[in-house]
């Protein structure tokens, strides 16, 4: 039990110990290097570099796997009110636990299951998920997730309104443009690509209306899209202000205005 407490201090309460701070710094460097390797591998590299990159990948997987297993085992210390299995599951299904799992899963799946090479290439893309492990070590990442969490109801409502608007716009444009452009607007699902590009005001230009009615609808959707794109930004901005104001309340005395110790 003492060993579990010491491990928990290192991996979860690292700010108060030199060993914990060193452990954090090592993992931050390793995560950053892994993201760099994923980017580098997208280039055409000499064949002699492959063994080195593979060795680095194996080393990283070993470190990340041990880190993941230690965090599972020490979950009993962090969730004392839960029994052993429930405390383990609490970490495994948590956002950070899932990120840790997704960061190592692409390495182990091909070893356990016969996987098509195309799917294997797709799995390797998930290695970029390791960048989200930095969320554990930087307050800015945690602040962003906290703001999204407290504003999730407003963001969900906004997303629901956008989906409804996209479906309606796609259906209208399909019935207007399909007789003239059956290849560009073959069905409502295909028209959804036009709706997304127009609503977000990107406008790639590969699909566009040619009828007068279609141009009117497209102009309306583009104007509405300006507001819908700005709406989530406003929601998140207000969330950041609320969180920062709440923190300031604890930094200053509400009676005398003197700064309180953090």
Automatic annotation (TrEMBL):
One of its GO terms (biological process) is action potential. It holds the Pfam family Ion_trans. The chain crosses the membrane at residues 21-40, 52-70, 91-109, 155-176, 188-208, 220-241. It comes from Fulvivirga imtechensis AK7. GO terms for molecular function: voltage-gated potassium channel activity. Signal peptide: none annotated. This is Potassium voltage-gated channel subfamily KQT. GO terms for cellular component: voltage-gated potassium channel complex. Residues 22-242 form the Ion transport domain. Keywords: Ion channel, Ion transport, Membrane, Potassium, Potassium channel, Potassium transport, Transmembrane, Transmembrane helix, Transport, Voltage-gated channel. It is a multi-pass membrane protein. It is found in: Membrane.
